[in-house]
Amino acid sequence: AWATVDVRALIFLHRRCRMRVAPFVVVVRRPITGLPSQENTMRFMIIVKANADTEAGVMPPESLIAAMLDYNQELAAAGVLLDGSGLKPTSQGWRIRYEGDERRVIDGPFTETRELIAGYTLIQVGSREEAMEWSRRFPNPHGPGAPAEIEVRPMYELADFPPSPSIESMGAMS
């Protein structure tokens, strides 16, 4: 396996997080050899939508934390988990609004909870179908029976862009 999870950190951070979704932080260690071929894999972000509880900083119940921990351990054991985390409420964040050459800071909270993100999981898999299978297994982020939604989107890879000096420099950074 090329990814390992520090489970003690997961449990510690779950207990300290203020989100209703099961937040998590994953430590990923990659050896120099044995990585999946970049040409044969795709990255996907599983986006957890916020609700009133996540925006209020309500902590998730232990049962939800346990379900998310099990799911994340399965992802890690399969070698597809890259990263994941919960996000604190927007009351602790800000936005930057671009207007011409000007930038303006807008402090949270933000009111449209259906458009907000409460957390994410980043996976690297061999196909769209594999990503869909993993996302179908994602535990309900707001608890069993609660209305919830996750969104899954493929991420751009540098190979998706036309070659240029900037793209080559970006590739050298990773």
What's the total count of β strands?
Answer: 6
Average pLDDT metric: 83
Q: Which value, in Å, is the CA radius of gyration?
A: 18 Å
Give me the number of helical elements.
Answer: 5
Sequence of secondary-structure elements: HEHHEEEEHEH
Q: Determine the strand fraction and express it as a percent band.
A: 15-25%
* Poorly predicted residue ranges: 1-36
First CA to last CA: what distance?
21 Å
Q: What features would you describe in this structure?
A:
With 174 residues, the chain is of the alpha+beta class. The protein is built from 5 helices and 6 strands. Strands 2-5-1-6 form a 4-stranded antiparallel β-sheet. The longest helix is centred in the middle third of the chain and has 17 residues, at 62-78. The protein is flat.
Label this structure with key terms.
174 residues, alpha+beta, 4-stranded antiparallel beta sheet, two-stranded antiparallel ribbon
SSE arrangement:
Elements: H1 7-16, E1 42-49, H2 52-56, H3 62-78, E2 81-86, E3 94-99, E4 102-107, E5 117-125, H4 128-136, E6 150-154, H5 165-173
Antiparallel strand pairs: 1-5, 1-6, 2-5, 3-4
In short:
By secondary structure, this protein is of the alpha+beta class. The chain is 29% helix and 23% strand. The longest helix is centred in the middle third of the chain and has 17 residues, at 62-78.
